[in-house]
Amino acid sequence: MDGLNGSVVSEFVLLGLSGSWENKVILTLIFSLLYLGIILGNLYIVFLVIADSHLHTPMYFLLANLSFNDIGASSTALPRMISDLLKEHRAISFQSCMIQTCFIHALGGTEMVLLITMAFDRYAAICKPLHYLTIMSPKTCVLLIVMSWVMGVIHAMAQFSFVINLPFCGPNEIDSFCCDFPRIIQLACSDAAKFEFVIAANSGFITIGTFFLLLLSYAFILVTVWKRSSGDLSKALGTLSAHITVVVLFYTPCIFIYLWCFPTSSVDKYMFIVDFAITPALNPVIYTLRNKDIKIAMQRLSKRDHHDRFC
């Protein structure tokens, strides 16, 4: 890889989270439990959607894919962060750093498009109920998932193509617990202003673009339900509460990190923790607590297990 970009830097040092040894042990335990919760919680959602025939609908097909994506996104950063907490020298090779960054942006871009497809599904179900099954056919659902992954990969590769050719010949410390394009560009041994602009424009476009589309779809849904229910918004808000909560949790750190014009403070690394540890752990909780169908499916699964155990 060094030969590809003329770099003399073979590894980067992740400064990670500082603190006393006792604090690091506590953080290691907390993040290990969070990661375990992310894996088990999201896998449970995927299993529930597959196992319960009542959940074989477009909405839950998309939800299962969101849970699968959350597992992948958290796995790109959390395991290394957990293992690095108790290390003195937190080095990552140039190749591994680039691979991690690409996966972070590919999965992040995929999740943004997935959230849009979930909003579109709710729009079709609420605003076009008579044509819902035609609009959200199995073929369309698969196409939307494939499109989400393609858009995520294109987003990551577009940024990677600019960063991979930069020369790295001096500083190699990254003030974070994982690699990311904005932090890497700041270490380049050339005037990377134009590359910073490209990265900011790319991330800003997909972040603001998808966020605007989400707001637009929610506005259409709220107005439609408001008109049909004679001015009562409670039904609409109840329908969208889980979606809106997930969107706020996911987009707030993204907007701060990628639209804050390459912040010099270390606050953005804590925003990463929200995106890669807190949000993926909360998503299963939000959907199980706020979704009636999921609750009923959990009860059916529990009764089925109880029946099988005693029969």
UniProtKB/TrEMBL annotation:
Similarity comment text for this entry: Belongs to the G-protein coupled receptor 1 family.
Keyword Membrane: yes
Organism expressing this protein natively: Sciurus carolinensis (Eastern gray squirrel)
Topology of the protein relative to the lipid bilayer: Multi-pass membrane protein
Protein name as annotated: Olfactory receptor
Localization annotation: Cell membrane; Membrane
A molecular function (GO) term: G protein-coupled receptor activity
InterPro entries the UniProt entry points to: GPCR_Rhodpsn, GPCR_Rhodpsn_7TM, Olfact_rcpt, Olfactory_Receptors
UniProt xrefs under Pfam families: 7tm_4
Domain (G-protein coupled receptors family 1 profile): residue spans on this chain: 41-287
UniProt GO cellular component terms: plasma membrane
